[in-house]
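Hi there,

I know you've been waiting on this one. I reran it after we fixed the sequence typo, so this is the corrected version. Both the input and the resulting structure follow.
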Amino acid sequence: MQPPSTPGRQAWTPPGSTSPHAAITCARVVTLPDGGRIIAGGYSDGSLRLWDPDRHRALGRIETGHGAGVDCLATALTPDGVPIAVTGGGWGSTARAWDLNGRTPVDDLLAGSSDWLVVLDAATLPDGTVAVLAHDRETALGVWDLAGRSLVVRLDTAMPSPPETAALLAPAQGGLTVATGHNDERVRLWDVGTGEQVGEFATARGEEVYAVYAPGSDGHTVAAASRGGVVRTWDTRTRTASDVSRVPGHLTVLTGDPRHLVCARAGDPVVLTRTEG
C-alpha cells in the first residue's frame, strides 16, 4: 500500500526498499551531470540501496561489509562525473567509498589510520577535490581529501562537541562553509578556513534540528529538518528563508533536493516528490 500524499507532493515507496529485518538509517541524493538523480539509502543490514527517483525504479544495491549496518552516508560527484558514496559503520568500521554507477568499491577512506569515522557530508570543490566532512576520535570535525585519503583541515570551532548532522557547502567561486544542526533550534554556519562562526539561522520554538543537508549543488543553499515535520531552506548569501515545507508527523525527513524529500516511516523509506512548481 502506497503512503498517503501531502499537498503539492506525491508520496511513493521505492521498489525493493522494504525488508522485515532491515531499516533505513540514512540517505542522500546525488545529482548526475545529465540532470538525473540517484537516491542512496543506508540500511541496518549493511546494504546501500539505490533508486532513480525520477523513474521510480531500483538501480541495485551494494553490500558494504559494515557488520553493524550503515549508520552514516555522504555522496558527491568525482571531477569526471562519477557519482560516489562514502559510508560509515560506526565503531571499528573504516569509512568506505563506492562508485554508484558500477556499484564497486573505490577505496577505504583513511585505511590503516582510523578505525572510526562519522561521515557527515561530501562535496566536489572547484579544483576537483572530492572533500568529505567527517569526525573521528582523534581529529574531531574535519575535511578529508577522498583521493589522497588525508585530512585537509581540522575545523577548530567553539562547538563543545562535533555535530551529529552537518552539510558541506562548496560554492564555485571558492571557500568552504560547514552548516551544523543543533537541538537549540539553530543552524550555525562556520568558515572552514578560520573556524569562526559566520552566520546562524533559527527554526521556530519546539523545532529541534535533527537533519541538515545541502539540497542543491550551488554551494549556497542549506536545509534543515526539524521535529514536527517542518523543513526550512535558506540562502546563505542573503541569509533569508527560501522555502518552508511540511510533512506528516509520522515521517522523519532524512535528506532531499529541490524536488524530492526522502523520509523514513517505521524503518522504510518514503519519497515525497514535488508535483507543483
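Quick highlight: The longest strand covers residues 24-31.

Best,
R. S.
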